[in-house]
Amino acid sequence: MNFKKCISRYILSFTIGIIALFSAEIVEAQNIEKKWNADFRRFSDNMTAVSIVKDGIIELANDQVEIGAFCNSDCRGSVLLQPHPTQPSSFIGFLMIYGNQNDSITFKVYDHQNNKEYIALNETILFSTNAIFGEIELPYAIKIDGALSSNNSIESLLINGVEPTKVLGSDTAFHLTLDYTTSITISVSPEDENASVSGDIGTFDVEEGANTFVFTITAQNG
């Protein structure tokens, strides 16, 4: 690892550490009692997962969602999601995980709003001292199935009635680069007829160059 990468990793670790220190205050402000708590005093080592939670392609973007890390049934860390520092439509968790080298770590998710617990679909990860999974701008996705709806996929994404050949960025964002100024109409149809769509939907004047559009699907609980 070269010097610049070492410095960047140190800065990221320091930033995550500072944010993690305020997690207890955030939980208190949310007035939510966490479902899981780890006894960190048993361990001298830790690692971090900078995480979001996704049900299919839809991000669970609220502060009622808790992520727990486990080694078998032993809780090794937990965190409630909080607003992303640079992406207003996203919620992120700075999950400190405690353990011993090569412990097998799995994840669970708890939805406090609906009192539902989910086992993450992610593969088991191995504990590695001071490791960092995910970054603030590219979080590690904790994946679950069925938290929002029995069918919450995007049926179609159309620009001026034509489906784009490639969607870039996150699952609910795309980039459009033009060499001219024009007006476009964006429409998104969810497969769940009870779901609602918000964000950059409608008609927009698009400038020459790179443009980014973001939309959110809110499905019914079920």
What's this, in brief?
The protein contains two helices and 17 strands. It has 222 residues and is mainly β.
Detail the poorly predicted runs.
Answer: 21-29, 147-152, 166-171
- What is the helix tally? 2
- The SS-based structural class is mainly beta
Strand content: 35-45%
The major beta sheet can be summarized as:
6 strands, mixed
| Gross morphology | elongated
By DSSP, the count of extended strands is 17
The portion of residues assigned to helices is 10-25%
Note the gap between the termini.
47 Å
Evaluate the radius of gyration: 19 Å
Mean pLDDT: 77
Order of helices and strands: HHEEEEEEEEEEEEEEEEE
Summarize the helices and strands and which ones pair or pack.
Elements lengths: L2 H19 L1 H8 L14 E11 L2 E2 L5 E7 L2 E7 L1 E2 L7 E9 L4 E8 L4 E4 L5 E2 L5 E2 L6 E5 L9 E6 L13 E6 L3 E9 L5 E4 L2 E5 L2 E10 L4
Parallel strand pairs: 1-10, 1-11
Antiparallel strand pairs: 1-2, 1-6, 3-4, 3-7, 5-6, 7-8, 7-9, 12-14, 13-17, 14-16, 15-17
Describe this entry's structure for a reader.
Helix content is 12%, strand content 45%. With 222 residues, it is mainly β. The strands form four sheets. Strands 1, 2, 5, 6, 10 and 11 form a six-stranded mixed beta sheet that branches. The longest helix is centred in the first third of the chain and has 19 residues, at 3-21. The protein is elongated and about 60 Å long.
Keywords:
222 residues, mainly beta, six-stranded mixed sheet, five-stranded antiparallel sheet, 2 helices
